[in-house]
Design a protein that fits this description.
This protein is of the alpha/beta class. It has nine helices and ten strands.
């Protein structure tokens, strides 16, 4: 079953065309990693899926909600946004709220859960991401990896059909990257539909079902994760993937 379908999606910033009539279909339970050089349109595509960025033209469907990006009502826009939840690279937690309060806020406000129900949900999600003991700590007392795991729990709390990750490890110290990737790997095993913009090639190869390589606002190549990363067909993909395999040389 199709969970996400994007047709002829176009987005410009001034004269810079960032997405050029993108077509993409993602099935229910599929994990798709989007890779590509900086400025290729990866994050813009992700942000267009939940209308954080307003596309210029095209059509977006998530679950059973569809809209024409040029002609739609506020009700349709709100319905589309409620199908997904976003995990940002910079966590975006409320600094004046505890880890648990960050998670329970949306279920209480948008879904009408009472505080006890929301607390039980929040604690179970914190346990799922390995942070039950940190429930009453504020973000400033948590490491970057812990804050990102709280952000993932917060995204799960609204029971989205799709999870969107925008470079979830790019702001982390190297020793904190794995703890976040392990949580995402566990979610993949639960067959949650996920779209992950990432620069972690090994993670994409081992966790994603499919890899989409973007460059210059286009989808250049896509296919099974290991095939695209280990045996890319397109020259642009080959050049991009090669730079992650080449040893880094330092000259002093």
């Amino acid at each position: 079953m199709e969970m996400i379908k994007v047709e002829k999606l176009t987005k410009s910033f001034g004269s810079n065309v960032v997405l050029k009539e993108i077509d993409l279909t993602i099935n229910e339970g599929e994990v798709v990693a989007i890779i590509g050089p900086s400025g290729s349109g990866k994050s813009t595509l992700l942000r267009c899926l939940n209308l954080l960025e307003k596309p210029d033209s095209g059509h977006i469907s998530i679950a059973d909600v569809s809209l024409d990006v040029k002609q739609h009502s506020r009700k349709e826009e709100s319905a589309l946004r409620h199908q997904s939840a976003m995990v940002f690279q910079s966590y975006n937690l409320f600094k004046n709220k505890t880890a648990l309060e960050n998670i329970t806020l949306s279920p209480v406000v948008t879904q009408g859960l009472n505080k006890n129900e929301a607390k039980a949900l929040g604690l179970s999600l914190l346990k799922q991401v390995g942070l039950e003991q940190q429930a009453h700590q504020y973000p400033i007392t948590l490491s970057g990896g812990q804050q990102q795991r709280v952000a993932i729990a917060r995204a799960l709390a609204v029971k989205p059909k799709v999870l969107l990750f925008d470079e979830p490890t790019s702001a982390l110290d190297p020793e904190r990257v794995n703890e976040v990737l392990q949580v995402i790997q566990q979610l993949a095993k639960q067959k949650i539909t996920m779209v992950i913009v990432t620069h972690e090639m090994e993670f994409a190869k081992n966790v994603a079902d499919r890899v989409v390589f973007m460059a210059g606002g286009n989808i250049v190549e896509q296919g099974p994760a290991r095939q695209v990363i280990d045996q890319p067909q397109q020259e642009q993909t080959k050049r991009f993937v090669r730079q992650f395999g080449d040893p880094i040389e330092f000259y002093i």
